[in-house]
Amino acid sequence: VITVHSVGGIPLLDAIRVRVPVFKCSACGHLIQSSSHPRRCPVCLGEEFTPAVTWLCEKCGFVRQKETKVKRCPHCGGINTLKYRNVIVSTPGRIILNAAMPKGYPFINEVMTQRSIAKHITQIYMLFGLAETVKVLDKLKDLGFKYSTLSGVSISIKDIAVPKEKYEIVNEADEKVGQVISDFNRGRITDGERHNKTVDIWTKAKNLVSKNVISALEASKADSGGVDFGDTEGLNPVFMMMYSGARGSTEQILQLAGMRGLMSKTSGEIIEAPIKANFREGLSVLEYFISTHGGRKGLADTALKTSNAGYLTRILVDVAQEVIVTEEDCGTIKGLTMTALYEGMTEIAPLRERILGRVALEDVVAPDGRVIVHYNEEITEVKAREIEQAGIRQVAIRSVLTCEAKSGVCVKCYGRNLARGKMVEVGEAVGIIAAQSIGEPGTQLTLRTFHIGGTASTTVEEHMIEASESGILHYDADLTTVRNKHGEWVVTSRRGGHVSILDKRDKRSRTLARHIVNHGAHIKVQDGGKVTKGDAIIEWDPYAKVIMTEQEGVVELADIVPGVTLSEEFHAISGMPIRVIISEELRDLKRGASDKGSAKKEEKILSPRVLIRNEAGDVVGDYQLPVGAHLIAEDGDKVEPGDPLAKLYKELSKTKDITGGLPRVVELFQARKPKEKAVIARNKGRVKYGKTTRRFFEILVQSHLVKVVDAGDSSLAPGSYVEDEVFNAVCEELEAKKKKVPTCEREEEKYFIPRGKHITVLEG
Questions:
Q1: pTM (whole model) above 0.90
Q2: 371, 394, 620, 744: which has the highest count of C-beta atoms within 10 A?
Q3: Across the strands, what pairs with 501?
Q4: In terms of residue numbers, what domain contains 750?
Q5: Model pLDDT, residue 187
């Protein structure tokens, strides 16, 4: 036995060297370190193995299989860097744990947390079956009871380690907030922007402190109570409890050792003044008073919402009880395209996890032309890993959402029964299982508010996208841009578009990453330009929507009348004008009810907008201004493509979930009508502006299909519908031959948009 201070960065009391044989899978070449001959390969499920002697290069990680040691590493050229890999450094505890594992299972030489135990149990079930898994679970339970009886962890107030960097981060955030207030006082930003930026700064600061808290706990040793044990103190107990998954979450430890951060009012609005202290340091009177909002709400919610959670399960079961697996295959050709899930730039669910156990809708083909998964075949762990290694970013799968079974769902659309790891059987009550799966965490969601005590859970507003891969940037066909005076490409497509990063090494131009780009965003790289991983490729203003010009010319303000369609106020401190487009109702309120009736008779209908005129005086741009738009451009200003004309500021940021999650789940199941719902085009076609009334703005959408009235000398059938482009091509062809041209009628659909709304489509 030799004393080793750390294994994989984790400090240990003592460590021992263990000789564990290495076996090579004959099918895939995967190396398995196991105390006895492996039964199945965890990668390809192969059953044939050969003993292997392996050497590992400490410098570059190169693995070499040879009976005798080579002096120099063939990969990096390092001398005497190859070490005998069959001997590993482990601990007595890990050896005791491995004794409980089935014979032939790979040697576990890692820190065992709640998650890693679940991962290993799943793997044992897949490789050894149910009977062996039951035995392992029984042995683990016995081990747990035995060693918990022999020893445990103690806890001291000193174990809650406050990171030194915390005070620097808080001071830096204070300076940034001071700068934001200074910008507001000078009239550079609005009050709403000031609030959102302040919330953003403190959210970022709290996230930064939380990272430092975890690393400080990881580095700190357990408090020895003043007794000198030399270098044999164990890990920090608070860190052990959290990291193992036994008790306490990151959020709770952050409140103990980091900072409480922003708190929310009962309405869901965020109190701008954060609580900079933690429970270890103690709260000031003011901080304690701010906390009472969230603390009281937590207690009230726990009492009131527990019954709601049970009721949610009941109504879900009532709705979903008829969903049963009724047939083997419904034969549908519909499905869903699955990709990895991202939240901003962070991958929260890899593609491998999202397609595992599902059935492929079409052949999944690797870039080299090899078929990995055939149509209607289950995507197993092995296949999912192959798809990921091949660099495939999206896979079409069968889904219950597109299942065409007469009643219930079919086996192929449902996929794997996750309880057993095999395909679902006909007769399984999958609806009830789904209802219980959603309802069961309901009680935990209500208790969550109580545990985190009303701290505001906000997210930092994303303002840029960095390249996740190196490659060639490609703009999609639906993306239109103009180059501004700073040399950046500004997105002018009203509905935004997409940019893709293509693999420059692949002849088929495989897509490595795809990003949504919103209207007004700035793209740093031109179409076809090279990008390197980590480069900033897209930037935008997270606090406002920009209405900008696409043409060069001179600004002319139309129907923008101060006091009628424009409210002019002056900033309280800087005295700068704040010009906002107002609605007729607000104007009438300001004017007073007395002269409202007479004014309506005289007034023409005003539609506030910004016109752009070229040198010849012709109108080359016409931009409607919605209610609430802050006017930036002045009459007579010279503008270039990409210059902002007006801004629509986003509403004040509120907490993500006012009451810890459960009401959000309930809301998803209630088909509520949204307050500010969008008017969406029902059919494809071309836009034409119609009449403007006092209350509505009319938009006509001419269908892309035309109805043939008289076929003339063409082969078109009267009464049939053809594409606009096809009809025009036929007409041109017949005109050239001086034959009779067909006639058609065009259908158009009317949409009435309430006045003052932001219209996102242009005429034509």
A1: no
A2: 744
A3: 473, 513
A4: 685-754
A5: 79
